[in-house]
């Protein structure tokens, strides 16, 4: 039985929608039990590990992820992240900042849901992922790039991290893994993500357990195994008749 001070975060053994909260807990050096559930193998990918416990945890709305924080039991990823944000004073210094943090959490969730549709629901994955990377993702990236430019701060809201940073970084990183572009058009995002990866409180975790955990469940068409970003090599322009002629003279 969990002690009243014990923190338990339950989720699948993937990064998915719980990783922002895991990052926050690691950043704040909060001892917690990282309760992991595993999918069965193909073709059924059974969820028995979770289902046999689902209704015995005392959750009002049983779902993954869930958080048990002493006698408080929560589900829903955003609720968990904002609860932890308030607990560790990472929800801004005033009402305006809090509202912007909540906006950024919702905005980045929209991006992750779009990525989910690609990774889990696409029938023709290659075509759908290409359209996502070529058309949908740039729209989102420009919005975040412009926001960072307007703010002009080290992090999203100011010179200190907030709950939003853990989710925005994580979900941008999911898209970075899928994308084979170098994001050169988004220098603020690249600098932001680089600075986040170098955080002393998170660097070791990001390079170890975090990097080894897949972003999606094993039934996904992409991200069901831990993969890294691979930049697509630019194709050399085809030789014209004139270039071929000059090469021989």
TrEMBL record:
A Pfam family recorded for this sequence:
GST_N
Q: Which GO terms describe its molecular function?
A: glutathione transferase activity
Keywords recorded for this protein, A-Z: Transferase
Show the segment(s) annotated as Disordered: 221-249
Ranges for the GST C-terminal domain? 94-215
Q: Does the keyword Membrane apply?
A: no
The answer to whether keyword Iron applies is no
What biological process terms from GO does the record include? Answer: glutathione metabolic process
The protein's superkingdom reads Eukaryota
Listed PANTHER family = GLUTATHIONE S-TRANSFERASE (PTHR11571), GLUTATHIONE TRANSFERASE (PTHR11571:SF222)
Please report which protein family the annotation says this sequence is part of. Belongs to the GST superfamily. Pi family. Belongs to the GST superfamily. Mu family.
Name of the featured protein? glutathione transferase
């Amino acid at each position: 039985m969990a002690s009243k001070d014990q923190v338990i975060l339950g989720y699948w053994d993937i990064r998915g929608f719980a990783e922002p909260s895991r990052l926050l807990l690691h950043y704040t050096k909060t001892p917690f039990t990282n309760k992991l559930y595993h999918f069965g193998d193909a073709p059924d990918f059974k969820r028995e590990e979770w289902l046999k416990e689902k209704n015995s945890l005392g959750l009002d709305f049983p779902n993954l992820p869930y958080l048990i924080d002493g006698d408080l039991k929560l589900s829903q990823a955003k609720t968990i992240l904002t609860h932890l944000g308030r607990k560790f004073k990472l929800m801004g210094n005033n009402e305006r900042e809090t509202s912007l943090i909540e906006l950024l959490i919702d905005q980045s969730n929209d991006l992750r849901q779009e990525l989910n549709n690609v990774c889990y629901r696409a029938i023709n994955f290659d075509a759908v992922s290409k359209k996502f990377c070529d058309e949908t993702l740039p729209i989102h990236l420009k919005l975040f790039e412009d926001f960072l430019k307007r703010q002009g701060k080290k992090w999203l809201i100011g010179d200190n991290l907030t709950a939003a940073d853990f989710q925005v970084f994580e979900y941008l990183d999911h898209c970075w893994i899928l994308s084979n572009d170098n994001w050169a058009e988004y220098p603020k995002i690249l600098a932001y993500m680089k600075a986040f990866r170098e955080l002393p409180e998170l660097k070791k975790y990001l390079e170890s357990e975090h990097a080894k955990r897949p972003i999606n469940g094993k039934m996904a068409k992409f991200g069901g195994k831990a993969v890294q970003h691979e930049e697509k090599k630019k194709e050399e322009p085809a030789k014209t008749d004139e270039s071929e002629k000059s090469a021989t003279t």
